[in-house]
Amino acid sequence: MSKIHILTADVSNKIAAGEVVERPASAVKELIENAVDAGATAITIEVKNGGISYIRVTDNGSGMDYDDAVTAFLRHATSKITSESDLESISTLGFRGEALASIAAVSHIELMTKTENNDGVYIELDAGEIVRNETVGCQIGTTIVIKNLFYNTPARMKFLKKDKTETGYISDIVERLVLSNPHISLKYIVDGKEQLFFGGDGQLKSCVYSVYGRDYAKAVSEIERNTNNIKVSGLVGRSEVSRGNRSFQSFFVNGRYVKNRALTYSAEAAYKNILMTGKFPFFVIHINIPFDLVDINVHPTKQEVKFADERAVCDEVYWAIKSALTESADVVRKDIIGSATSRQPTFSVPVFENNIKQMPISFIKPVMQNTMAEPPATYVSVVSVDEPTLQSYKIIGQLFDTFIIIEIENKIVLVDQHAAHERMLYEKLLVAKKQKQISSQILLSPVALTFSPKEFSMLKGKMDLFTGLGFEMEDFGNNAILIRQTPVELGEDGLKSLIVELLGKIGNNMNSNREDEMLYTIACKAAVKANRKLQEREINALIDDILRTDGVNTCPHGRPLMITITRYELEKMFKRVQ
User: For residues 258 and 304, is the Cβ–Cβ distance under 8 A?
Assistant: First the structure.
């Protein structure tokens, strides 16, 4: 007796359904992608019991005539491709022709559809078999109702989560639809209640407002870059809307939501030294690329993609985000230093009169390198001899020996002295490292520090690394190291704790990221601490440094340097205005 036999159509369809329709959210995704491909400008999605008992998707797209409506439920039936060559430049969201057949195989389906020039069609299917079809009157477009999903595949049913969890998966799909199609009006109904509505005004920021709320819509910067035949656009969140996970990150390639580790790494690399450790950025990024340069046919769900030149795409994403963050980081600083002129003025010696300071503007340009190998993380000054534009501001003083208060026009700016000083030290160390010119502080008296045998052995093996960071040290015997020079000024106690912490950051394979971590550890240890009273000259010097440095608004750990409170906000707190 033969052991190999051909599966029946019923069994093979259910297997295919398991690949394409993993859960109710998968069915919703396929239906709304079909609606988008049909040119819909308005889509309504309704689900009940997590989509298990009821899913309805209605659109105002082009619809189908009778023949197409019947054929659509056959396996590998599609209007999106006709030949093998079409697979090389897929421009639609769906194309395999598996979705409707797979969904129909494991549910009850009702379809009502109409084209502009034909009568409406009603079709009812049970487990993939048409049990009723007739002509009806209806609006142009398509409505598909799915009932009792997986009713005939109990093995699949038992792996579904609670209704609330399954609804969450569907909500995620719907929200991504809004973010990927700002021109489509959408209504989302859950268990009889409207969950989300978007009017389709074409504005991505409106999409973010509808999906994530006002706080996120207010804290984003636009990105726009179009080079090398790759267009990158979208919105990237500032540090105040960072998250504890990546759930609020979205990439769309030619309108399709995708997941790609290289793209995620490139986007997050642009946030280096902006976000706190353990935080992830919020962004909605659209990438438009010639269809023949991207392969979306690598996974049944079509969420994974491959690029003909992945590095080029990643580079464009990195620079688009980096440029936007650099510009947005200067909002507070530019408020303080005044409006930019067409020339590039330099810093001059500040003048003090009655505690009112006239501060010249300094412009600073990012060092641009078109490579992802070592993305730039620092800035260099562009100096000229033009007459600087002056902007008046007043240093009010120090609050709680921790914050510096500045008055500028109708605003109050609060500066965190530790975060600001830490960032300035880090930027200087970073520039010096790039130029291989880290200057050292010669200690008045060499300091001998004793370490544990393990620490001493590791330190001896990494002497060259510490030398490159600005230390001068030598073996002093008996597990001791004699230190003659350091990259920053530190007391003896602080010096030992710094070196021990730096040793903890040294791995078997040092890279630029690890070295940068060591640099901002040095900066953190050397920076002025909170609860320390500063002299006027120290405050002035720190503010000068902040205003010289373009594109920074956080410490290396991601904490903000400055926050602004407007006069209007203060007056509102005191009920002087409404």
Answer: yes
Digit-coded pLDDT (tens) for 80-131: 444 444 444 444 554 444 678 889 989 999 999 999 999 999 999 998 888 9
For 389-406, the DSSP string reads PEEEEEEEEEETTTEEEE
> What tens digit of pLDDT does each residue of 472-501 get?
999 998 999 999 998 887 777 788 888 888
Tally of CB atoms within 10 A around 426: 26
* pLDDT > 80? residue 425: yes
Residue 479: count other Cβ atoms within 10 Å of its Cβ: 17
Parallel, antiparallel or unpaired: strands 411-416 and 120-126: unpaired
**Domain positions in the chain:** 9-198, 204-327, 332-438+529-566
Q: Hey, which residues does 442 pair with through a beta bridge?
A: 485
* Strand extents, DSSP E, 60-118: 108-114
Closest CA to 358 of 348, 367, 368, 366: 348
Distant-in-sequence, close-in-space partners of 84: CB < 8 Å, separation ≥ 6: none
Whether the Cβ atoms of residue 179 and residue 186 lie closer than 8 Å to each other: no
- Quote the CA–CA distance of 190 and 55 in Å, as a whole number: 10
For residues 510-536, give the mean pLDDT.
Answer: 84
Quick check: 201 pLDDT over 90? yes
Going by C-beta distance under 8 Å and a sequence separation of 6 or more, which residues neighbour residue 402?
416, 417, 418, 530, 531
- Quote the distance between the C-alpha of residue 242 and its chain's center: 9
Outline where DSSP puts E strands in 241-321. Answer: 249-253, 256-258, 283-288, 294-295, 306-307
Local structure of 474: helix, strand or coil:
strand
The CATH code belonging to domain 9-198 is 3.30.565.10
**Check: CATH 3.30.1540.20 for 332-438+529-566?**
yes
Q: What is the reported pLDDT for 510?
A: 63
CA 186 to CA 203: how far, in whole Å?
Answer: 14
CA distance 186 to 41: 8
Q: Where are the beta strands (DSSP E) in 270-370?
A: 283-288, 294-295, 306-307, 351-353, 356-360, 364-366
**Contact between residue 35 and residue 60 where contact means Cβ atoms under 8 Å apart:** no
CB atoms within 10 A of CB 266: 25
Residues 6+ positions from 78 with CB-CB distance below 8 Å: 94, 95, 96, 97
CA–CA–CA angle 568, 573, 578 (5° rounding): 65
Which option is the CATH number for 204-327: 3.90.245.10, 3.40.50.1820, 3.30.230.10, 3.20.20.140? 3.30.230.10
Torsions phi, psi of 125, nearest 5? Answer: -125, 150
Q: Which tokens hold the place of 522?
A: 């040095």
Q: Are the beta carbons of 285 and 234 closer than 8 angstroms? A: yes
